[in-house]
Amino acid sequence: MVGAGPRPAYPGPVTSSESAASRPSRAATPADPSDAPSVRPKARPAGLRRAPMVFRIAMALFCVGGSALLVVLVMFASGTRDFPLWLWLLVALAPVGLLVGAFGVRKAGLSLGP
Q1: Is residue 37 part of a domain?
Q2: What residue numbers bound the domain in which 70 lies?
């Protein structure tokens, strides 16, 4: 249509006759304690598998290496320039964990078959 303005993105009126403050709200806690939801964790779904040990090892190595790297960065920012060898070896665990994880993904992908 020529000369027509933009059409609204909604078909009807936006306003409501009832405000949120006037509506009754639900009670936050049930009246009967036996109706309360359980705090027991739900069972693992049948199709869900645990992460292979390779992935857990890779994640642990990467987290230790990343934490050591953060320690080095904080120490460097505070003025320390000479770091012990063991700290640098811990920092080297981050890429080792990344490589172990990459090889684990490759191994898991190959085990799925064609």
Answers
A1: no
A2: 53-78+85-111
pLDDT at 74: 95
What's the burial of 68, exposed, middle or buried (CB within 10 Å: 0-12/13-18/19+)? Answer: buried
Closest-CA residue to 57 (of 107, 3, 7, 109): 107
Domain count, the chain: 1
- The 3-class SS string of 3-56 reads CCCCCCCCCCCCCCCCCCCCCCCCCCCCCCHHHCCCCCCCCCCCCCCCCCHHHH
Report pLDDT digits (tens) over 29-63: 556 666 666 677 777 777 777 778 889 999 999 99
